[in-house]
Design goal:
Blueprint (H helix, E strand, L loop, with lengths): L2 H11 L2 E5 L9 H12 L5 E5 L4 H11 L6 E4 L2 E4 L1 H9 L2 H10 L2
Helix pairs in contact: 1-3, 2-4
GO molecular function: 2 iron, 2 sulfur cluster binding; disulfide oxidoreductase activity; metal ion binding
Keywords: 2Fe-2S, Iron, Iron-sulfur, Metal-binding, Redox-active center
Protein name: Glutaredoxin
C-alpha cells in the first residue's frame, strides 16, 4: 500500500483525525498542542491522532495529499479542515463543538 493510500485509509477509517507532531500525551510542537487542546475542549472524545514524526514518508507526503503545507492537519469525515489556526478559530466560534457533536453522534 502506498503512503497516499495509507493516508486515505486513515481519514476514511476515523471520523476525526489529527495528523500532529508528537502524541496527545507529549505534543512536540506548540501548534499541535493548541489544536489538540481546542479539539478536547470542544468535546472530541473519539479523536484519532497520527504522529507524523514517527513516519518520515507520511510526513513528507501528507502535504501533497492534502494540499496543506504545515502540521497539524485536522480531517473530519475525510475532509481536510485545516491546521492549528483554523481549528482554534472554529473552536472560538463554537463551530468546532457543533461539528464534533454531529460527527460523534451526540
Amino acid at each position: 500500500m502506498s503512503v497516499l493510500e495509507r493516508i486515505q485509509a486513515e481519514v476514511e477509517r476515523h471520523p476525526l483525525v489529527l495528523f500532529m507532531k508528537g502524541t496527545p500525551e507529549f505534543p512536540m510542537c506548540g501548534f499541535s498542542s493548541r489544536a489538540l487542546k481546542a479539539l478536547r475542549d470542544a468535546g472530541a472524545t473519539e479523536l484519532h491522532t497520527v504522529n507524523v514524526l514517527e513516519d518520515p514518508e507520511l510526513r513528507a507526503n501528507l502535504p501533497r495529499f492534502s494540499n496543506w503545507p504545515t502540521f497539524p492537519q485536522l480531517f473530519i469525515n475525510g475532509e481536510l479542515i485545516g491546521g492549528c489556526d483554523i481549528t482554534v478559530e472554529l473552536y472560538e466560534s463554537r463551530e468546532l463543538g457543533r461539528i464534533i457533536r454531529e460527527t460523534q453522534g451526540a
